[in-house]
């Protein structure tokens, strides 16, 4: 081949490469050790004693061990990756004996022992206001006969003991603080843990960073840092994911499903989750109950605490329409407190003659009439009180805002005036937990729309409505309901346990402190080209790539999955497979398998590449013309040079080309 042809080919190849670079969107940069996560929900706390938000629990699952970590596939105990290597339960269900793995050390080099478990459980039990208290309140005593044995003596059987979410903390770090202050203090940073990641820095409305624990008992993970950034709106979240500035989005907008259906670089994970999204009403009795002393001064008590108002709204909520139009048909319409996620516990109440609440504006109007409301004018009135109240929706929940607009419109048709107030999560929490006397609350809201995400069993979903629950947000109180939930918790016969749950569920759906709208869902997105090896939890198309345990991140490998292994993805110890091969979903390429102030960019420690975009057609045409002219000029120059040095060139033509 002559040098002239090779030179010309090189120019043309360079031109094609240039055009390809300009016309096509640049791929995301190969993973450099950082897993970059974006979310619109703020990390409200990294202190396990007082965290509330779902993203906070996802971070905790990566940065702390439970005594029994959840298995990726089905959330059952994963003894291979837990602090406990085995456990036994006495026949009466009251004594649980755990044997710990030997040789585990904390990230500061101190040995992990049974004393750490004892201190954590006792502290969570004795601090009655922390979010973990309900899990361990039934523990009568804890014995540690040796460094690797923990014996829990329970007051009564508790079916949750194999799945309680109580991260084990280092006694030698935490014991210097008063137990009463544990749920009110900032977490000492960097954290000390036995898990693969240390919480290095925390910024509620900015970036929270986790770094690899050099003392971790398992193999060193490929992901060296987890960089979680809070965004102010979902549009910028999606833009940065598409542009390669993020590797993962947690709790995205389901309206993106069609938009991303043909995106080869983005995998969508969507499915029913372990909870429900509900309209919650201020149910704190005027005389107080549990943790509330009475409703706040601005509450429309005679409206939101009137049963006819809530029942009429239960009929006015078109759940199937909202699930389809607002949430892309991913979640199921909700008619109870126990999600179909819990297949063995779930009961479909939709056709129940008493609490099915099938959409009917006529039925809603009749309920108001029977309840003494005069709807000759709009809004309806009763004893001089207008049927009007305020419904709070979070700023970082645009889907929720759209859903509630539909509810508000339907409510207006039956004579109930609802004003939507869009507030930050902090502002809403300040209304829900407005302080009163004796460290109790005077909730100062009418209603709000939010969601609960549960545990591996539905006990938590029911407990949030119990009188005095640390999780209570509606301040509902019904002794009959409380008794049934407590009985279900200590009942070992499974069929009886489920029946008790359903009895409690029916009471709550009759009283309606909550109107469930849809069952909770997960909707997360990951890039396929920066990391691979994601493990869905639970296993299958409806699983999520984050939130169950740290194995979901330590399993990741840099870059896209090798083509040769796509059909036989590696299995984790729990049997889960690489998401590219196992999680399936809707659509090709991209497949579909749920607040506050956002930073303008990720921190300097995690630089943000510019987002990619399309190129105007006219610019492409100009570039092609310019490149062609350059090729012709180069060819002419090279041809003239060859003619002026013909002898030398002939010798060169005969020589090997290097």
Provide a quick synopsis of the model.
By secondary structure, the chain is α+β, with helices and mostly antiparallel strands. The protein has helices at 3-23, 54-63, 114-126, 133-136, 171-174, 234-243, 256-259, 301-304, 307-316, 319-325, 361-370, 398-414, 425-432, 459-463, 479-490, 494-511, 551-554, 579-582, 617-644, 646-654, and strands spanning 34-39, 84-89, 95-100, 139-146, 149-154, 197-201, 207-212, 225-230, 248-249, 266-281, 381-382, 385-386, 388-394, 417-423, 447-453, 514-527, 531-532, 557-558.
Would you give an account of this structure?
By secondary structure, this protein is α+β, with helices and mostly antiparallel strands. The protein has 3 domains: 3-25 and 614-654; 34-265 and 530-582, Periplasmic binding protein-like II (D-Maltodextrin-Binding Protein, domain 2, 3-Layer(aba) Sandwich); 272-452 and 512-521, Dipeptide-binding Protein, domain 3 (Roll), CATH 3.10.105. It contains 20 helices and 18 strands. The protein has helices at 3-23, 54-63, 114-126, 133-136, 171-174, 234-243, 256-259, 301-304, 307-316, 319-325, 361-370, 398-414, 425-432, 459-463, 479-490, 494-511, 551-554, 579-582, 617-644, 646-654, and strands at 34-39, 84-89, 95-100, 139-146, 149-154, 197-201, 207-212, 225-230, 248-249, 266-281, 381-382, 385-386, 388-394, 417-423, 447-453, 514-527, 531-532, 557-558. The strands form 4 sheets. It has a 10-stranded mixed sheet with strand order 6-7-8-1-9-16-10-15-13-14, with helices on both faces. It has a 4-stranded antiparallel sheet with strand order 2-3-5-4, with helices on one face. A hairpin with a 5-residue loop joins strand 6 and strand 7 (207-212). The protein is globular, with a radius of gyration of 29 Å. The termini are close together. Residues 1-30, 565-624 and 626-658 have low confidence and may be disordered.
């Amino acid at each position: 081949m002559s040098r002239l042809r090779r030179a010309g080919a090189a120019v043309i190849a360079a031109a094609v490469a240039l055009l390809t670079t300009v016309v096509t969107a640049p791929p995301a940069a190969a993973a450099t050790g950082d897993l970059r996560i974006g979310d619109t929900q703020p990390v409200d706390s990294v202190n396990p004693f007082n965290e509330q938000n779902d993203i906070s629990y996802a971070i905790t699952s990566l940065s702390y061990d439970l005594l029994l970590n959840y298995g990726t596939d089905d959330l059952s105990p994963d003894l291979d990756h837990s602090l406990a290597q085995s456990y036994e339960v006495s026949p009466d269900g009251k004594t649980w004996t755990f044997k710990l793995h030997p040789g585990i050390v904390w990230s500061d080099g101190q040995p992990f022992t049974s004393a750490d478990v004892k201190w954590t459980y006792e502290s969570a039990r004795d601090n009655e206001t922390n979010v973990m208290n309900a899990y361990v309140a039934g523990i009568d005593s804890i014995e540690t006969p040796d460094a690797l044995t923990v014996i829990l003596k329970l007051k009564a059987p508790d079916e949750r003991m194999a799945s309680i979410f109580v991260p084990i903390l280092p006694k030698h770090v935490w014991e210097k603080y008063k137990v009463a202050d544990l749920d009110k203090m900032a977490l000492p940073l960097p954290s000390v843990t036995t898990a693969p990641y240390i919480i290095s820095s925390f910024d509620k409305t900015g970036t929270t960073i986790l770094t690899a624990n050099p003392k971790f008992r398992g193999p060193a993970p490929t992901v060296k840092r987890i960089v979680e950034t809070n965004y102010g709106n979902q549009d910028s979240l999606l833009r940065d994911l598409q542009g390669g500035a993020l590797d993962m989005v947690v709790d995205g907008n389901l309206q993106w499903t069609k938009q991303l259906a043909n995106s080869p670089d983005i995998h969508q994970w969507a499915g029913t989750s372990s909870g429900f999204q509900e309209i919650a009403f201020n149910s704190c009795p005027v005389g107080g109950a549990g943790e509330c002393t009475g409703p706040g001064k601005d509450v429309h008590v005679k409206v939101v605490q009137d049963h006819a108002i809530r029942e009429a709204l239960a009929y006015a909520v078109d759940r199937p329409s909202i699930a389809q139009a607002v949430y892309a048909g991913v979640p199921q319409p909700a008619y109870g407190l126990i999600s179909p996620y819990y297949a063995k516990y779930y009961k479909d109440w939709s056709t129940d003659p008493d609490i099915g609440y099938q959409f009917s504006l006529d039925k809603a109007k009749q309920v108001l009439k029977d309840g003494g409301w005069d709807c000759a004018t709009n809004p309806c009135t009763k004893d001089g009180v207008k049927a009007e109240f305020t419904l709070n929706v979070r700023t970082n929940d645009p889907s929720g805002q759209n859903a509630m607009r539909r509810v508000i419109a339907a409510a207006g048709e039956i004579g109930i005036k609802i004003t939507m107030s869009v507030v930050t999560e902090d502002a809403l929490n300040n209304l829900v937990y407005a302080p009163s006397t004796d460290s109790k609350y005077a909730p100062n809201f009418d209603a709000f729309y939010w969601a609960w995400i549960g545990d591996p069993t539905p006990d938590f979903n029911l407990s949030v409505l119990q009188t005095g629950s640390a999780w209570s947000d509606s301040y509902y109180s019904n002794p009959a309901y409380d008794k049934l939930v407590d009985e279900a918790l200590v009942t070992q016969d499974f069929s009886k346990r489920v029946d008790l749950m359903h009895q409690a569920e029916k009471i709550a759906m009759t009283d309606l402190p909550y109107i469930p709208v849809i069952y909770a869902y997960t909707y997360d997105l990951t890039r396929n080209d920066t990391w691979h090896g994601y493990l869905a939890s639970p296993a299958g198309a409806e699983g999520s790539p984050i939130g169950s345990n740290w194995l979901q991140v330590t399993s990741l490998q840099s870059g896209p999955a090798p083509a040769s292994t796509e059909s036989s993805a590696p299995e984790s110890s729990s049997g889960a497979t690489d998401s590219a091969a196992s999680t399936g979903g809707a659509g090709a390429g991209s497949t579909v398998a749920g607040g506050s102030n956002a930073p303008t960019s990720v921190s300097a420690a995690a630089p943000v590449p510019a987002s990619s975009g399309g190129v105007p057609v006219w610019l492409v045409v100009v570039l092609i013309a310019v490149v062609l002219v350059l090729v012709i000029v180069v060819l002419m120059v090279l041809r003239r040079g060859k003619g002026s040095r013909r002898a030398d060139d002939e010798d060169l033509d005969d020589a090997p080309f290097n």
